[in-house]
Amino acid sequence: MSGRPVPCSPAEIGSLFLFEKLSPEQLGRLCAEGRVERFEPGPVYAEGEPATCFYVMVEGTVVLSRRVGTDDVEVIRSSQRGVYSGAMQAYLGDRERQVYNNSMRVTEPTRFFVLPADTFAAIMQEWFPMAVHLLEGLFFGSKNAQQVIGQRERLLALGSLSAGLTHELNNPAAAAVRATATLRERVAKMRHKLAVISSGPYPRESLASLIDIQERTAERVGKAPVLGPLEAADREDALTDWLDDHGITEGWRLAPTFVQAGLDVDWLEQVAAAVDEDILPGAIGWLNYTVETELLMDEIADSTTRISHLVDAAKQYSQLDRAPFRTVDVHELLDSTLLMLSGKIGPQIKVVKEYDRSLPEIPAYPAELNQVWTNLIDNAVSAINSAGGEGTLTVRTAAVHDRLLVEFRDTGVGIPREIRGRIFDPFFTTKPVGEGTGLGLDISWRIVVNKHHGSLQVESEPGDTRFQVLLPLTAAVDDDTNEESV
After folding, report:
1. Measured between alpha carbons, how far is 67 from 48 in angstroms, rounded to an integer?
2. Residues 412 and 386: beta-carbon distance below 8 Å
3. SS3 172
4. What band does 159 get if pLDDT is binned at 50, 70 and 90?
5. In this structure, what DSSP letter does residue 284 have?
6. Quick one: pLDDT at residue 316?
7. In this structure, is the dihedral angle defined by the CA atoms of residues 370, 375, 379 and 382, taken in order, positive or negative?
8. Which of 2, 381, 399, 454 is deepest in the core (most CB within 10 A)?
9. d(C-alpha 360, C-alpha 354), whole Å
10. What pLDDT, on the 0 to 100 scale, is given for residue 322?
11. pLDDT class for 477, splitting at 50, 70, 90?
12. How many angstroms separate the CA atoms of 267 and 287, rounded?
């Protein structure tokens, strides 16, 4: 939007704090190469447009806003003469993408001194060469430092996650190794038992019946019901009595395996009816090995499936094989992060998921959102540990108007009111030296607010702290993380 040109007075321009140290010649050049424009109430420029001008307010009222989802959220309102905005980094030239990082409007007739971006850059480099070098170093140094610090923070998180993942993988892997060794032993005994039975004076029909029973027993193992402790104990007692009554030694040892496989007295009666009495003990022993091998194979399958799920969760968390920006289900991201951090969370902290599964997928950078979840969950765990080590972490999702809410609620010590306003500051931490960088919440804020145009806020009192992430449902995200200035 263009304003109405009005005369430019070097004296008036020189009264603005930004130009008060300039010489009359310099003020004259500003008025000659720049201009003063009067704007009626309304927009001056919009966020994301090419930054073509540098604006300094002479008089009036200016409002700066940032786009959050479909809304423009006011960040600054000022009537102070000399406040400035627009092409703030024009002196960087094409080394940095020159767009307006905010939207500006005026609420009353307002005059601006307007300097074209290329003129502003040329004057800065000519009049203040040392300052320009310092500003360039500050800008790029800060940007590089943020990248390096962000990488360091991610590496620290990765180290913690790797330790947790190693622990989680070790349990099913060790179970699979143990089950495999036991399975090898049982199969060897089964072969021996089969050799004994087959070498005996048993009719071919009896052996065929025994093979048929073995097949049906294996099928039954796969369909075994899950019994309660009391029901399982009663069934074990009944099986033990039946085995003892039929001359089967060590029936008390066989009974728990048969119960786990879903076998009962009626099933053993069918076995007894299908084979001769003299073959029954050997048949029962052989079927016991059959049941054990099936149960061991199920255990191996469960363990390897668990390992596969953990690997899938690690891939989901890291997003290594996914596009950096895509439409995602936040619940998948939350589940993968909770699984990756389960070792760190520990059994003493109860995790409650209150998900609204009807929420739509949203456009986002999932790997970076996983980093946000990691930081917020890590802080919640630390707060609960500081409160005694036992507590509840509740992860909730919900729709709030046109945004998606992800809330992390913990029953930890809470955040004191006097430091609540500083927790998002870089390098601010309440953790002991060596346990925190003070960058987790700062990085999280940048990812949520700057990169996703969302919001990150906190409500806290002892025993009830809630970090709330609000993300646009359909907002366009961008990776421009420059700060707005006035």
Report:
1. 10
2. yes
3. helix
4. low
5. H
6. 59
7. positive
8. 454
9. 16
10. 53
11. very low
12. 12
DSSP secondary structure string, 136-189? HHHHHHHHHHHHHHHHHHHHHHHHHHHHHHHHHHHHHHHHHHHHHHHHHHHHHH
Distance from C-alpha of 397 to C-alpha of 388, rounded to nearest angstrom: 27
pLDDT in tens, 325-375: 788 899 988 988 888 788 778 889 999 999 999 999 999 888 888 888 988
**Cβ–Cβ contacts within 10 Å for residue 129, how many?**
10
From 375, 379, 372, 371, select the one nearest 412 (Cα to Cα).
379
Token pair, residue 272, equals 């007894």
Query: Distance (Å, rounded) from C-alpha 262 to C-alpha 11?
Result: 96
Dig out the tokens for 359 from the structure. 């929420």
Which of 104, 114, 108, 123 is CA-nearest to residue 5?
Answer: 114
- Tokens 């990082």 locate to 101
Residue 388: Cβ-neighbour burial (10 angstroms; 0-12, 13-18, 19+): exposed
In this structure, the strands spanning 403-410 and 362-364 are unpaired
CA distance 265 to 259: 10
The two tokens of residue 14 are 């020189």
**C-alpha distance from residue 465 to each of 10, 263, 377, 379, 398 (Å):** 55, 51, 12, 10, 17
388 dihedral zone (left: phi>0; alpha: psi -120 to 50; beta): left
Neighbours of 182 (CB within 10 A): 16
Report yes or no on whether pTM surpasses 0.85.
no
What confidence score (pLDDT) does residue 358 get?
93
What type of residue sits at position 483? E
Q: Count how many Cα atoms sit within 13 Å of the Cα of residue 110 in the half-sphere of its side chain.
A: 27
Predicted confidence at residue 131, as pLDDT, reads: 64
Nearby residues of 376 by Cβ (< 8 Å), 6 or more positions away: 408, 444, 467, 469
Backbone angles phi, psi at 116, to 5 degrees: -55, 145
**Top-confidence residue, 214 or 144:** 214
